[in-house]
Predict the structure.
Amino acid sequence: MTVVAVVQGKEDTEIYQKRINKSYVYRALAIALISFTIITFVTMVLSIVQNGDFIEYLYEATSAFATVGLTLGLTTRLTLIGKIIIILTMYIGRVGPLSITMAIAHKQQTTTNLIRYPEDKILIG
């Protein structure tokens, strides 16, 4: 359920007369929030470690995360720590923030959780 759907009084997200599954909407929202957090964090760390303009570091961090190859020429002026941060940001952006989050948060499944029975609708009252 997106904000627009809620404002319009709808329960489902609809685009071009198609209904989008809520799990896809939640996954897209999670990816957007995680990506925004990573880019903000990297920009802040670069601003602390390096001396320069905040906007330039934001551009470099966004470009590295999106792995588009654009730069303002700032990468060559980075210290070793700054270059390592940019390399890690490129790796995280390429693998995907949701994949990395799921890998870190993945719990070992026990054998009792492997079996799930189908849901059934029952009448109550």
